[in-house]
Write a structure and sequence with these properties.
The structure is a homodimer of 371-residue chains.
Chain A lengths: L2 H21 L9 E2 L5 E6 L6 E5 L6 E2 L1 E2 L4 E6 L5 E9 L2 E3 L7 E2 L6 E6 L16 E9 L4 E9 L3 H4 L5 E5 L8 H4 L3 H10 L7 E4 L14 H25 L9 E6 L1 H12 L6 E5 L5 H7 L1 H5 L1 H7 L2 E7 L5 H13 L5 E5 L5 H12 L5
Helix pairs in contact in A: 4-11, 5-6
Amino acid sequence: MNAPVRLISLLAMVLSATAIAQGNRPPPIESPVVRPDRTVTFRLRAPDARKVELSGQFLKGNQMMDKDEAGVWSVTVGPIEPNLYPYQFVVDGMSVADPSNPDLFPNERFKSSLVDIRGETAPLYAAQSVPHGELVYGFYQSKVLGRTRPLVVYTPPGYRASGGSYPVLYLVSGTTDTEETWFRVGRVNFILDNLIAQKKAVPMIVVMPYGNMMMGTPMPNSLQAAEMYKVFNDELLHHILPYVESNFRVVADREHRAIAGFSRGGGQSLFTAFNNPDKFAWIGSYAAYLTPEVCEKYFPELISRVDETNSRFRLLWLGVGKADFLYPQATAFNSFLTEKKIKHVELITEGGHTWMNARHYLAETLQSFFR
Amino acid sequence: MNAPVRLISLLAMVLSATAIAQGNRPPPIESPVVRPDRTVTFRLRAPDARKVELSGQFLKGNQMMDKDEAGVWSVTVGPIEPNLYPYQFVVDGMSVADPSNPDLFPNERFKSSLVDIRGETAPLYAAQSVPHGELVYGFYQSKVLGRTRPLVVYTPPGYRASGGSYPVLYLVSGTTDTEETWFRVGRVNFILDNLIAQKKAVPMIVVMPYGNMMMGTPMPNSLQAAEMYKVFNDELLHHILPYVESNFRVVADREHRAIAGFSRGGGQSLFTAFNNPDKFAWIGSYAAYLTPEVCEKYFPELISRVDETNSRFRLLWLGVGKADFLYPQATAFNSFLTEKKIKHVELITEGGHTWMNARHYLAETLQSFFR
């Protein structure tokens, strides 16, 4: 903490007593508190709750929390392996986000908070002292959803001043995520800022659409899912691409267009690219797959004309974790591609169906796209 | 609901059974459900809770909710006067946002959700069929806070293509709000899109900084508060203005610079404009004030040279609701200005210290700024 910040904090403590007297509010709780040794204290004020647990992807199971005389529940865990993790409190069986933490996980169903555990070096997903790009919320008319929808667009550092045109990655999030999840949880902006500064990634535009064309209901992976992927395919091609290409300076050809996604978004990315090999040359599938039957039904030519397929796709990249619940299906898809002699790159990692893995896979592919 | 949406919803219901079987999740809850007669049903799954209440600014007091055999609590209220309201559930004394509603109120302390009750005509804050501006999250280095901070910038429809320069409004939110609150709750973007389309507002850029320079602690209104306003003043002038003026096409003179805010943000706006009459010509104070002692201590020349003051400020606008807890102080400030013969415009409305009023005051002043 530097000197002016410390001064302000001191003054803040003095003033907060006055504020409480005025507003009749209980004193603010600090949660989470991350210490340099990577132990973390989580706190929740819930004086009438009977049981409060901490649930987080850094824990093996839920952790019981203890209540003090002021009705504040707390638990200290760790040291935790450095990463940016989702967590929530389970209060008498109901999951809630941490009310003291403004850093939320955007999702249509569950409400999680985020805790950032730092190691000795700044992680790739952190805001570092490099030029920063912007995140833009644009609004376009979705015919499929019958309403105005936001989509989030990353423009690289210097975009406004440069006048140049850029390649574009369409980046799709998972089931029940929103157009904000790759920004808030995936931290694609800081990852790209850092990779661009290190000259490990080409400056590019990233477009994050809302992927759930079913308006809130989760989607299974099946032939029926493929029908749903077609709805996404149509929205992307007929409404999102034209919006992006008329509002941002992008190079509008297949060699400068990538599509990638996590979980259901990975399925949508595979489907859309396979369905439009004239439009996309770069593909990233993060913890996702298509079934052989979907491939055979919808893309027979991709399989029968392998040489053409292999010359068209500059990168077909597939990553999955060994503990991912989709690991069997994802690796079966990898085997199917191998058997059909369709060129692809596989990355098998530790870990499960998590945003920590999604972020890792993104960082890997960003270094290959458009090279 | 139009035909493709209906088809998708049907298919979604079929698929969701599969999804539940796969994911072992309870079925999704729909909440809130707003009916054409403006009655609304709110629902929360909390099987182990003993008491769940609905709290909302459309209610006189908290409303008890009832539990069904599946552990889902619900209540139907209304008809409710059309507006966009914050609400939350109080579960055994603990306030939580609605987990089924992705529309959240960004705030550092409390977690509310938003419910939009529509009347017969589309409200000014709604996305209508007009050209839309963009919301931009830019990242700048805050010396005061010692870290990279986002700020949110609205650019008007056609900004990217136009090449022209625009006037700029600095718009500050209230205590414990964030740089997102004027976007998510204030809906400044849709209000401006609509006013610009109706030619009732000048196309302008709006910059929404993070106002809480004390990093999370509320601020009282007092002489001490003025010291805190000075910290904000410095951040705005030395770090935010240069960022904005080097990244966006703004006309960088006082006649094309406005500052306005709600609650503590209104106090910061008054203080910063009074402190820099060479930099700001337009002021909006929404449910806020400065004390006479602050004015006399910090701005003696503004009071002693009234003619100069009145020629410098093109608009000093002050709005407050009769039920606002700051009503006595805000109207005392109005009287002080009148007594000192400082020209200003007052609007006294019904209602309290709410974002419904803040939105109303914003819409009023947007029609006067830069005219």
